[in-house]
Amino acid sequence: MIKIAPSILAANFAKLGQEVKEVEEAGAELIHIDVMDGHFVPNITMGPIVVEALRPITKLPLDVHLMIENPDSYIEQFAKAGADYISVHVEACRHLHRTIQLIRSYNIKPGVVLNPHTPIESIQHILEDVDFVLFMTVNPGFGGQKFISSVVPKIEALSKMIKERGLNIEIEIDGGITAETIVPCAKAGANIFVAGSAIYNQEDRAGALQQIKAAGEA
Ligand code: DX5
Ligand code: ZN
């Protein structure tokens, strides 16, 4: 089953609650929240107070993507704010296993994120500990960028590795997802898709969301 996680980075922040409700009613499965610190990535976005404000607004799981240095220092705050999924970049974690266990200690689904150029070998020894792997298909930092197709073979290779080891891990894709780019990623074995501009920048958001999902399921 394909799950769509609209990224609120592309939403209108002046009416964020409404923007989240709209995609929930349109059939979204998760709400993707992009946290940027101006150090790990060259942009600053939002923190735990936004997660806390959105928690009572929606029944959907809140999927918090941490693009920050020292994620360990902030996991408790995001947990208390109501995150359901928390993903951390392998490139930002010196002791990844510890960070993943810390996330799990709050009963939150832990995930690990790979930048487009980071090889899957960097996560082969953490797979038993995570609930999902997130592949960046753009360089993190901004919405509305072009999909990097050279990531697709990495998705295929990880799907194979997961099957061979008999693991139950979801694969999420983030960056430049549209009704076109979702197709090779879904074929390669991914099942959760983040979409920011391809949903929020459209006039008919529900139509756009359903079109992306249908393309992934086809
Ligand atoms: C990029 C973020 C993405 C971004 C996706 O650093 O992690 O989640 O919001 O936006 P689109 O779908 O517009 O590429
Ligand atoms: Zn993201």
From TrEMBL:
<feature type="active site" description="Proton acceptor">
    <location>
        <position position="34"/>
    </location>
</feature>
<dbReference type="GO" id="GO:0006098">
    <property type="term" value="P:pentose-phosphate shunt"/>
</dbReference>
<dbReference type="GO" id="GO:0019323">
    <property type="term" value="P:pentose catabolic process"/>
</dbReference>
<feature type="active site" description="Proton donor">
    <location>
        <position position="174"/>
    </location>
</feature>
<protein>
    <recommendedName>
        <fullName>Ribulose-phosphate 3-epimerase</fullName>
        <ecNumber>5.1.3.1</ecNumber>
    </recommendedName>
</protein>
<feature type="binding site">
    <location>
        <position position="176"/>
    </location>
    <ligand>
        <name>substrate</name>
    </ligand>
</feature>
<keyword id="KW-0464">Manganese</keyword>
<keyword id="KW-0119">Carbohydrate metabolism</keyword>
<keyword id="KW-0862">Zinc</keyword>
<feature type="binding site">
    <location>
        <position position="65"/>
    </location>
    <ligand>
        <name>substrate</name>
    </ligand>
</feature>
<comment type="pathway">
    <text>Carbohydrate degradation.</text>
</comment>
<feature type="binding site">
    <location>
        <position position="7"/>
    </location>
    <ligand>
        <name>substrate</name>
    </ligand>
</feature>
<dbReference type="GO" id="GO:0005737">
    <property type="term" value="C:cytoplasm"/>
</dbReference>
<dbReference type="InterPro" id="IPR011060">
    <property type="entry name" value="RibuloseP-bd_barrel"/>
</dbReference>
<feature type="binding site">
    <location>
        <begin position="196"/>
        <end position="197"/>
    </location>
    <ligand>
        <name>substrate</name>
    </ligand>
</feature>
<feature type="binding site">
    <location>
        <position position="32"/>
    </location>
    <ligand>
        <name>a divalent metal cation</name>
    </ligand>
</feature>
<keyword id="KW-0170">Cobalt</keyword>
<keyword id="KW-0479">Metal-binding</keyword>
<feature type="binding site">
    <location>
        <position position="65"/>
    </location>
    <ligand>
        <name>a divalent metal cation</name>
    </ligand>
</feature>
<keyword id="KW-0413">Isomerase</keyword>
<dbReference type="InterPro" id="IPR013785">
    <property type="entry name" value="Aldolase_TIM"/>
</dbReference>
<dbReference type="InterPro" id="IPR000056">
    <property type="entry name" value="Ribul_P_3_epim-like"/>
</dbReference>
<feature type="binding site">
    <location>
        <begin position="141"/>
        <end position="144"/>
    </location>
    <ligand>
        <name>substrate</name>
    </ligand>
</feature>
<feature type="binding site">
    <location>
        <position position="174"/>
    </location>
    <ligand>
        <name>a divalent metal cation</name>
    </ligand>
</feature>
<dbReference type="Pfam" id="PF00834">
    <property type="entry name" value="Ribul_P_3_epim"/>
</dbReference>
<comment type="function">
    <text>Catalyzes the reversible epimerization of D-ribulose 5-phosphate to D-xylulose 5-phosphate.</text>
</comment>
<dbReference type="GO" id="GO:0046872">
    <property type="term" value="F:metal ion binding"/>
</dbReference>
<comment type="similarity">
    <text>Belongs to the ribulose-phosphate 3-epimerase family.</text>
</comment>
<feature type="binding site">
    <location>
        <position position="34"/>
    </location>
    <ligand>
        <name>a divalent metal cation</name>
    </ligand>
</feature>
<feature type="binding site">
    <location>
        <begin position="174"/>
        <end position="176"/>
    </location>
    <ligand>
        <name>substrate</name>
    </ligand>
</feature>
<dbReference type="InterPro" id="IPR026019">
    <property type="entry name" value="Ribul_P_3_epim"/>
</dbReference>
<dbReference type="GO" id="GO:0004750">
    <property type="term" value="F:D-ribulose-phosphate 3-epimerase activity"/>
</dbReference>
